[in-house]
Structure formats: structure tokens, C-alpha cells
Amino acid sequence: MPDPGPLRGPGMIGPLPGDIFRQGQVLNHTYEIEGVLGRGGTGEVYRAKNQISGRIVAIKALNARFSGNDDYIQLMRREEQMRDVLNDAVVRYTECSRTDQGHVFLVMDFIDGPSMNDVMARRRMDARELMIIAHRVAEGLVAAHARGIVHRDLSPDNVVLRDGEAGRATIIDFGIAKDTSTGAKTIVGNEFAGKYEYAAPEQLEGRAEKRSDLYALGATLLAAFRGQVPFAGSTPGEIVRRKQSRLDTEGVPEPLKGLIDWLTAPALADRAPSAEAVVARLNEVLRPNARRAGRQAPHGGESRKRGNWALLLVLLLGLAGGGAWYAGLFEGWNQPVLPVAAPYLLTASAGPQGAALSGNAPDAGSAQRLRQAFAGATGTTPPETALTLATGVPDDRWVENVAAGLGQMQGLAEWALSVTDNTLAVTGLADSRDLAADRTTAISDWAGQAGMTARIDIAIGPRLLPVQAVRDVVQPFALCGPLGPDAPPEAGYALGDTIVITGAIETEAARGKLQQALEDAIGDRQLRIDATILNADLCAVRRVLPQLESDRLSIWLGDGATGQVNLSGIYHAGENPVVEVLAPADLTGLSLWVVVVDNTGAVYNLLPNLKQEAHDLADVGAVENGQRRIRVLHSLEDVKNGIGTFATTVDEDSFGKSEIIAFLSKTSLFGIRRPKDESIASFAEALAQILRDEPGNIVSIASRVIDARP
């Protein structure tokens, strides 16, 4: 049964009640769901639009019960690793994430075009078309294998022909979104992953290596040529036996037959050794018979006749004194006839794994020109055999256009250029947003001047962003206590990761500046700032607070009128906040100091105070159920009855954020009782002086923000 087409074409399936996502839903504040592209037993695939960039993407989502299955999560992780591969023959992956409802989803390129499976359902594919596809897929495997990634599930439904062109075949993996009721099924688990019909023999034993993908490529070519899925067997035993034998390629024309036999040899030692070797072989065999004809010696009587006429002509020319002219005239008779390349190709790439060049050139001088351009762009001199001489160059500007295009790659950390006739695709990685924009514009302008159709996709790096680089950007904004990345990965942030910043920040304007500074530095990564917006007064005190755990103290907030706890810390006009400091009942020998930093520019010293000068922990509060409760802000009723010193209500003069701070110290924090209220600057200066003069005296700090609103 044909694949439902998750990556391809404009058509979408109508919504069903069981859809994971709904049309118009926005994931991660970025991806707006446009419709369903495919459904299967484990998940669904959607077309979506990136609301920020406008880019159309495909999103693969697992059903909730499979989102908790380690086997399927591992399959998603393995697929996401392909985002490290920058090659036009490999679909680009962007992000792997989880929704609040628990659905794991993967974001990737939307590729417009049919799969080989779709084409097989309509017609048999011809041998030359399949060899062009094989060449393109092998180039993609070269890039994937260089990253240590083995696809394990290569099959006709995982090879998509962009815009229907064989020369733009692209490797994808949408196995989980297929209809699992009929046809080849993708099996996942600890021992095997793939489709039995296309899997290499070693995969049945739980082993998969790079040559396993080559076997799958050969089986895919055979299936497409025959127009039917190969029969792998109906029982486990039959499947194993069949995999030990060569595939039946009778009737397949050469050189496709030889290629398939080489790719699908059951024994690894007999199989194609690498994807690079497959590309090299296809560079030779993906040509008409002209090359072989140019190399073959003549046979039979006709050959002898040609030899006799040639000998007679040589004798006549020699007698005429024309030996030198003859040498020049017949020099080309000893050269092979150049093959015709259709399409005319060139691929080039450069990155941490090295640089590579392959493709066509019309003559030796042009090949040298292209090699020089590649060396200038990469600093790597390609081998003389990197390019194959062939006729069929689209126009007389092609070589200079491509050479100029190679020059446009300079400055990119990684890049891959693929030219098919006068159509080109560029993927790359730039270290900054400005460089990505500059290169995109330059390449687009060059392509327009060259008369080429271009698709450009440059990601913004670096590929791995150190956590310290994020901290360095955040540090100038940390003016209100701790501010930084939450639970950062030890190795750093990969492309597509989400960076979460937590802590406190002074103003909304400062938050906006922090966001802009981070977005300029993090490249193609998501950013979420979950920082609390405070105010300048609170931040002035927070800046001098030592970074201590609140493991010995906590602060309880309640309502004076009802006595009920207030978990949010939000109070509205007319309400009466009540505050208690909580400590373990057996905690003694320490001193407690409590203040409220008000949003009016003042600090109120709540404990000690005029009525309660003692502030040794054992002398304050009351013990209930093993916990000491020290009330520092009372209800209005308590103060009216002479219980407690401080009480407050929320009014328009107190709207904003204030903070209760409790200090637990070995000896009295300041040594002397401070005034009932004082300026922020005065308190902050005194606290900073104590910290300098008596380091280590403070052992614990607890704080809570009171947010007063209309």
C-alpha cells in the first residue's frame, strides 16, 4: 500500500476525532498546525508553518501511549540525530520536543514530491532513472555514515523525489506514520528495526552497520524496477533462509543488475564496501555505452578493413611528407570518447568531518578550474579523480557559474552544495545570524545572475553552544540575584534545543534586552525566559545577598481576615497579608533577623523590633507540631488587641512587589537594633559591610515576594 505521504504534496487528510493535534494549534509557541499528512498505528504526521520564519515543516508526532515507550522514543532520538547531517540528499531535522499533554514530536523539512513507493504504485521505474536515484541516495548515505549514523530502514517509502525529479531524491524516515494494516511494516524494538523485505541479513541478528543501508538501497532499486515489494518470506524461518541467498535479478538489464547484485550480496565481504565506493562506481556506470565503445578494440573483418584503410592512409601521408600533420590530425583517435552526463551534476561539501567534491566537468581545464575553486573555498585540494569528464554541460557559463558559487561558501562553518543541471541546493551552518543572512543574500544574488534556480537553507550555529557562552550573555543582566540557564546539558546546547533562563530580573525592559542579546548568540535554538520581574528596590538588596540555601527556614503567607494560607503571594486591594517565618523546633543557638523590602524605597526591620528585642531563635515564636512559627506581620485584629507590632493592608500606595527576607545567623546579624524603617541604600550598605566583616556568620536565608495588585 502506498505511503500516505507525510512529507509530500499539498494534499492533506481531513481531521478525525482521534487526531493528536488540531488545525490551528500552535506547538512550542512556534509551529502552527495546518493539517494531517499521514496517519498510522503509532502516530501521525502534520504539515505546519513556523510562525516566526514562515517556513513550512513536517511534524511527526507519537500517540501518547507510544510517547512513553522507550523503543519508540529511541527511534525518534535516532532519527533526530540526522539533524547533524547537512546534505541536500538527506531531510533536515530541526527539533525533537514534547507537548504538555505528553506527545513526543519531531520537526523536519517538508519535502514536496512523491516517494519511490508512490511512483511504484503508478508505474515501473526505468533502469537509468533508478541509477540516478541510487547515485543521489548514495551521496546522502556518505554524509550520514560520516556522522556514524546508520539509517536501518531505507526503503521506497523513505526515498522522496523532490518535485518528482530523480536527481533530487532525498532520504527520509517516516516508518511510524505508515498505515500498518497492509504492506511492508517497520518493526521497532531492542533486536531489530527496519522492514524485513529490505533489511540486510545481519539486521535479523540485531546487527546494523553502514553496509546494511547499502543492501537496503539495492533491494529498493530491485523493487522499484520490478514494480512490486520483494517477498521476504511468510515465517521467521523462511525469512532467515531467504536472506542467506542472493536476490533474484534475472531480467534486470546491465549495469543496474550488476549494481544491485553488488549492493545486496548476503555476505558482508562480497557487498559494496562503502557508500563512497557506490558513488564512485555510479560515476562510471551512469553513462551511455560511448565510454566503453571508446575503450574497446575493434574485432573481426570490419576491424581489419578499418586497419587496412588506416595503414594505406598513413603510407600515402608519409610519402607526401605529411608525417607531422598526420600526428596532430590523428592524436584524438587514441583518446576515449567522453560519455554524456544527464543530468549534469556537481556536489561539494565541507565541515568538521572533512571536505569532498564529486561530479562532472566538460574538459580537463574546466575540471582544474572547479578543483581550484573548491580548494579556495575549503583549503583542501581534491584529488585529480574527483570530477568525471563528460559532455552534456547545460551551457557554456556552467563551469564559471559553479566555480563562483563555490566561492560563495566561504565563511560558513559547514556547507553542502548540490548542482543538478541549472538547479542547485545549498545547505549550511553559519556562526551568526548576520553571516547567515549575508550568505543567503549573496548566494541568492549569484544564482539569479547565473540563471540558476536555487534552494538555500542556512542554519545558524554554532552546532554545539557551550553553557558558559549562555552564562556570559546573561551575567550583565543578573542584577537582581541569581539568573541563568535552568538544568543546562553538560555537553552544551545542540541545534534545536530549548534554552530556559530562570531567576529574577529588574524590569520588563531589561528582560527584553536580555532576550535580544540571547537570540543574537544562540542561533537556531528555542529560548524561554521564565524570570520573575521585580523592581529596582528589591534588586538593590538582592544584589548584596549571599547565595545560601533556605534549607533551615521557610516563609508562610496567609490572609489576616480568614487565616487561610496564600500560596501565590498575590494580594489585592483591601486585603491584609500575614507573614510567618518557619523553622524546625529543635533548631537553637542561632539568631533570626527579618525585614521587608518595600516597593516605596524603604526597608522595615520586622524582627527585632521595639516590642520584641530578643531575636534568638529559641526565644521567639511558638512551637506547633515540631515546627517553630514566628509571626512577623500580623492581622489587623491582632494589632488592635495588642498582639504584635506590624500589620498592613493593600492600597493604591502599596501596589507592586515587596519582599520578606529572613536571615539566620550564628550571632546577631547587626549586633544592634536598627531603626524601624530605613532607606534601601542604607540597609544594603550595612548588609554589605557585615558580609565583609563577618564572613560565614549568615547560615541560611529565606525570602518570599508579596505581589500587591488592585
TrEMBL record:
EC annotation from Swiss-Prot or TrEMBL: 2.7.11.1
Short name of one Pfam family: Pkinase
Matching InterPro entries: Kinase-like_dom_sf, Prot_kinase_dom, Protein_kinase_ATP_BS, Tyr_kinase_AS
Signal peptide: none
Domain Protein kinase stretches: 31-286
Domain of life per record: Bacteria
Binding site for ATP: K60
Alphabetic keyword roster: ATP-binding, Kinase, Nucleotide-binding, Transferase
GO MF terms, alphabetically ordered: protein serine/threonine kinase activity
Broad EC category: transferase
UniProt protein name: Serine/threonine-protein kinase
Species of origin: Tabrizicola soli
